[in-house]
Amino acid sequence: MTVAVVALAAAGCGKSSTESSTSSSKDGKYSGKGIGLAYDVGGKGDQSFNDAAYAGFQKAEAEFKIGGRDVEPTDNESDADKVQRLVTLAKAGYNPVIGVGFAYAGAVKEAAAKFPKVTFGIIDDNQTQAKNVADMVFHEEQSSYLAGVAAAKATKKNHIGFIGGVDVPLIHKFEAGYVQGAKSVNPKIKVESQYLTQTAQEGGFSSPDKGENAANGQIEAGADVVYAAAGLSGQGVIKSAAEHKVWAIGVDSDQYQQAALAKYKDYILGSALKNVGGAVYELSKSVYEGKPLSGEVRGDLKSGGVGFADSNPKYKAMTDVVSAVDKAKQDIVDGKITVDTK
Fold first, then answer.
1. Which residue among 48, 53, 196, 307 is the one 20 to 30 A from 205 at the CA level?
2. Whose CA is closest to 118, among 149, 99, 94, 148?
3. In Å, how far from its chain's centre is CA 2?
């Protein structure tokens, strides 16, 4: 498949995109131009949320031999910019068109109403109820609970930290699960908690320097495990943890495996996974096969939609930590543990 980088001319469509060739399915069910993917704040290269979506996009392109265009957000963009981005993708023939992140909620609703024959998807929001919209959401609190168990078992100081990118309900779920998981191990554990910004526009999901400064403060206060749910900002948290030789816990993607974080990976205990890539892939597959998904599609531990990455050999060697995390996972799947969302 030939890939070329092209600039999008339409206003509000983003800074650039990757576009690849067009084809249709062998049985003729799919005749679109491919997958349209619009990134959230932080864009491609965040080694976390957006990159997870891109991995699913790439897998679907390769497996189904269809085209695709992925588009970056712009700084300080408006909701109208997001609408225009999705409309431009739909008008160009891309199907499905996927907004990566809850910030696309209004844009997906508006664009989907204009293009009823195009399937739209949104990650991390379930407000839009339409026949041509798939709301792809997750039980982030469940994977965060496992992160909390791991942190509480790994800490030597009974003092851990949580850093949220933006103070919004979605990120509250990460914090709630993490704190509950940690306290299931040690009810008296001390948990530092901090949000980088009140709004995404202030850079909470896109500022590694903010993440690094917050982690420096928590580690200096005594935390020896820090978990960030902060998108691109989480890279700064991981950097700080490595420099202080304490544990970091990654989020969304398996951050131990990310090339851009390779020099810090020995200090990445694990990652609370959210299968964003799988959601992008499954929606693309459903459209390709002529049976598009719609309505709420929610990933949890039981379905593999969320999980905890164990790629670090140092983590695998900590058998008491691994067994505690495994038991917690099974108890959640079996319904013995219900994880808080607030």
1. 307
2. 94
3. 27
The Cα 250–Cα 273 span in angstroms is: 8
Beta strands (DSSP E) in 16-105 are: 17-20, 34-38, 68-71, 94-99
Over the stretch 150-194, which tens digit does the pLDDT of each residue have?
999 999 999 999 999 999 999 999 999 999 999 999 999 999 999
What is the DSSP secondary-structure string of 122-179?
Answer: EES------TTEEEEEE-HHHHHHHHHHHHHHH-SSSEEEEEEEE-SHHHHHHHHHHH
Question: For residue 153, which phi and psi values (nearest 5 degrees)?
Answer: -80, -30
How do residues 287-340 score in pLDDT, each as one tens digit? Answer: 999 999 999 999 999 999 999 999 999 999 999 999 999 999 999 999 999 999
Report d(CA 136, CA 38) in Å as an integer. 14
CB 167 within 8 A of CB 195: yes
Gyration radius (Cα) of the chain, Å: 20
Contact 205, 139 (CB under 8 A): no
| Residue 103 near residue 40 (C-beta atoms within 8 A) | yes
